[in-house]
Amino acid sequence: MGRVIRDPYGRVLDYVRISVTDRCNFRCVYCMPEDGIDWMPHEKILSYEDILFLCRVLAEMGVKRIRFTGGEPFVRKGFVSFMEEVRRTLPTLRLTVTTNGSMLAEQADRIASLGLDSLNVSLDTLNEDKFRKTTRTGELGAVIRGIDAVLLAKNPPVKINAVIMRGFNEDEIPSLVNFASERGILLRLIEFMPLDGNVWAGTRFVGAEEMLAALPGGPLWQALPGGPADSCGPSRYYRNEKTGQRVGIISAVSNHFCGQCNRLRISSTGEVLPCLFSSSGYSLGEVVKDRDRQGVERIVLKAAASKPESGDTGLPGAGGPAEEERHMSRIGG
User: Fold this and answer.
1) What is the CATH T-level fold of the domain 15-331, as seen in this structure?
2) What's the burial of 328, exposed, middle or buried (CB within 10 Å: 0-12/13-18/19+)?
3) Nearest-angstrom CA–CA distance, 128 and 143
4) 292 by DSSP, 3-state: which?
């Protein structure tokens, strides 16, 4: 058996999410406060050369899958060229990207040539007014054009991620299901998570069971065997017995998947976070810039050793992490 990264609870950590930037062209309500945040100075962000070196070391340590996130990864100049270099350098590594979809149309053909395992697009509403309200700066049409351009290029597989919030888009679940069905893509419905006390509101939370009940066709949706441990992801999947369509539901709060978590997160400044709900991490910046392989391994293993058995998803008022300022744009989701 090859090398693996293992945490104190026996979980093999073979999936790493790397944020390439904290910058974004949207200002989504669940991601950052309305007045935005102060962007990290460019000199504090890992260079593409730094990230490529880090990917090599992680692959040598047994990491099999890397997801690139932001902020919005495509706003960083040269991101697609960087991805091409990662693919040339590490051809067997599973590569995925999470994006808001707004910049896909102009680069769809190059994206198709990357051989990504999946492209996850965040899309919470199909209503132009609500889309503008939740993103504050986005244009729904640009995202849909981007999705369709990638589908026309026939690679990679596209997934839609929708954060469901009460009073905003819980009534759109049937429309989102139909949108995904028409395009033959996978929809994943996500519980609103208490990551930032400035944007979290318990009254807006919609649980997984309520989402499942809102799927059009009701009893036709049957749970598929397996779960997060089998799918290398947090979703529990349901299949419509009549149409064959699959939908994933991510119950990060009501029925969290911590017991099967196989991931670490690395911020754009090189901070390793053992858990999505970690309030602090371990800095890789210096050892990466020095190209110190042993230093990277030491810090990654230290982060893995501190991974909690279960993330603290405490709600505001209960002393949990939701009262801290941990913006999603800084940790890449």
Assistant:
1) TIM Barrel (3.20.20)
2) buried
3) 11
4) coil
